[in-house]
Amino acid sequence: MKKNTFKLFTSGLLLGALVLTTACSSDDNNNSETVNPVTDGRWITVAGALMQTDPGDGNGGTKVYAISKENAIDPNFSVDVYTNGAAVQSNRTARLQSSVDGNTLFNITYTGANGGEFMTYKVTGGNKFAESQNKSNISQYAGTSPRWVKLFDGDKTGIAVNVTAPVVNTNEDKTFKYTRGTATVLSLDLQQAVATAFKQYEIPLTPEEEAQGYHIFRLDAPTLNKAGNKLIIGTWMRKTDPATGQNASSFTRLGSKSVVVDYPSLENPKVITSTVGFGDTSGYRSFNSFVATDGNVYQATQRDTQNGSYILKINQSNEYDNSYVFSLDTALGIKGSYIDAWRYVGNGIAYAVYTYEGTEQGFLARLDLNTRTATKVEGIAYDADLNFGQYQGFVVDGNNFYIAVTPVGKDGNIYVIDIPTGAVTKGAKLINKPGNHYIGVF
Asked: Where is the secretion signal located (predicted)?
């Protein structure tokens, strides 16, 4: 659907055993150091999207089920979220976020009568999710279909963004002038369930770009910079045909763009442009940029069928570093790569789910942001029906990276990857239903 538009004490012993096993496979990594904080007793919430009309469309709602870390890493344990899970409020696929400790799910209902309503769920294991009574509806500011993510600020803040349907503006003689929508950027206190600030404005491009019909169609995937004073917001670009006033089905792409706004005021929007990447930077239902260990922001691109996906670097002056060139096509030796979702896991390492030209099948790659190299992850049960187009959630806990892998309508597994070494362990079995697919762990 997206791609057709323009071609997220026992436990300790088991985890320790995994680290010990993988340490033996590499003399070049020291597994005695933990890459990320470990949350003892953390729940792993598995999420599945139900088919509505077509297999894999994921528009029939979302169900969740929480298991322990020791169960998640156990290949003899099975999870059937569709039979045993709890439904979360959403007219279509829920756009979920989880707290760092895994004990809370955050949700903003996407479309429908309750579209724009924020609520939380307390995770207590199995299908027991206590929905909060304290809710907030932000639809009057950001519409009933806001895009949003939580910031990496200790689960304090979520940022929702939206752009109204872009409108064609004309000169007095009725000739084309520019196309713009009104953007909204809103901050949400995740603990108190209340909007704390919002700003609305048009975000113009350069006069030359606007005269050609280029405009921001969507904003998504906000990220707080290291200094904590700027938000980097991804964009999805489109182009109006000035001669007809209609949306252009294909066009020459501009350099990748992001919008930078002051934080926490949300004021002073500024567009920055990469000369390295030419894809969109909005991602799709998941985080799309991260502050890495070196303090810089790294961002993925999408929808550039000619050049494939890039990882772009935004420096601590909040500008694109055009000396940093990381092409996924080049790194993997493929053409037309497309990053559906990705996650930074620490020490310059990230994991990305992707596809490429000539196939709709999904794959997983390990990325090294420092060396600008990538390798396809082996040890995963790949399948022609594996599609990560709606994938949302990864879990990073200590040295472990968790991912749910299920082909549409087929059973799959949780996989747990050791971050320092890249060693892969097949975990819990995920029971599927026809037309459905698992969209993440949280």
From this structure: 1-25
